[in-house]
Amino acid sequence: MAYDENNIFAKIIRGEIPCDKVYEDDHALAFRDINPQAPTHVLVIPKGPYVSSDDFTEKASDAEIAGLMRAVGKVARDLGTVADGYRMLSNHGRDAHQEVPHFHIHIFAGKNLGRMIKPVDS
Ligand code: 5GP
């Protein structure tokens, strides 16, 4: 899947659409999700044009990958989520219901998040 330069997160990176920013460095941008699923729900995204975790882990440089993961850890610490816990999650593709085609890692925290996923009934 080719990267769509007009996806919503590309526009946020370019500053064409506002976001509630919590962190930014050379490789990553973190901002609050517009439709939070937990008291703390932040998205951490690479600044480079990667569609999903598959694209990112295949094509991004080691510096970009390290930068993104360092940013996830820093954001979780800065938001005070480490002591009680947080969940990081990334959706790739149809079955995972990825909505925005720019790689992003969700950070959820601020309440008991329950078990990871519901039992599969198929
Ligand atoms: P996905 O389903 O792709 O893993 O998650 C996409 C996330 O992006 C959703 O949680 C959705 O609420 C969030 N989102 C979609 N559009 C915007 C936006 O314009 N601004 C922000 N801050 N979050 C958005």
Give the arrangement of secondary structure elements.
Blueprint (H helix, E strand, L loop, with lengths): L7 H6 L7 E4 L3 E5 L7 E7 L6 H7 L2 H17 L7 E4 L15 E5 L13
Antiparallel strand pairs: 1-2, 2-3, 3-5, 4-5
The structure holds guanosine-5'-monophosphate.
Guanosine-5'-monophosphate binds next to loops.
Explain what the structure shows:
Strand 1 and strand 2 (28-32) form a beta hairpin. Helix content is 25%, strand content 20%. It has 3 helices and 5 strands, in the order αβββααββ. It has helices at 8-13, 53-59, 62-78; strands at 21-24, 28-32, 40-46, 86-89, 105-109. Strands 1-2-3-5-4 form a 5-stranded antiparallel β-sheet, with helices on one face. The protein is of the alpha+beta class and 122 residues long. It has one domain (8-109): HIT family, subunit A (2-Layer Sandwich), CATH 3.30.428.10. It is globular, with a radius of gyration of 14 Å. The site of guanosine-5'-monophosphate has 11 residues, from loops.
CATH architecture: 2-Layer Sandwich
Q: What's the total count of β strands?
A: 5
Taken together, the total number of domains comes to: 1
Low-confidence stretches: none
The CATH class assignment is Alpha Beta
Overall 3D shape: globular
What can be said about the biggest beta sheet?
5 strands, antiparallel
Computed structural class: alpha+beta
- Order of strands across the biggest sheet? 1-2-3-5-4
CATH superfamily: HIT-like
Strand/helix succession: HEEEHHEE
**DSSP helical segment count:** 3
User: Helix coverage percent of residues?
Assistant: 10-25%
At CATH level 3, the topology is HIT family, subunit A
Q: Span between N and C termini?
A: 28 Å
Q: How much is the radius of gyration in Å?
A: 14 Å
